[in-house]
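Kindly draft a sequence, keeping tokens residue-aligned:
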Amino acid sequence: MLLLKNNFVRLYTKLSILLTALTLASHVYAVQIESPLIATNIQDFFMALIAIVIVFATPIIVFFIIYAGFLYVTARGNEQTITQANRALLYAIIGGLLILGAYGIITIVSNLITAMTG
């Protein structure tokens, strides 16, 4: 029991010293963390966000269009596979249009806000 109490006291002492040192270091050295975001306003933030989504979504959309073409080629008249290929192509095109539409809407809203604020 005494050994456990001594270990606890040592641990408490070490943690106290570490916490005191960190507190003093933060006061001595003014740590300034810069924001990793380039955007300075909400419009720029959303434009950057949509640009990132477009970069990641474009290869996925292309992949699904190629996949739909592969399903068409390998269907050999099977109605179920043709329906699956139609659905894959439709969803890929709808996804691409949604992403481009979001980019267009954000661009329009950003231009309107910029025109109003002047």
Observations:
- The radius of gyration is 29 Å.
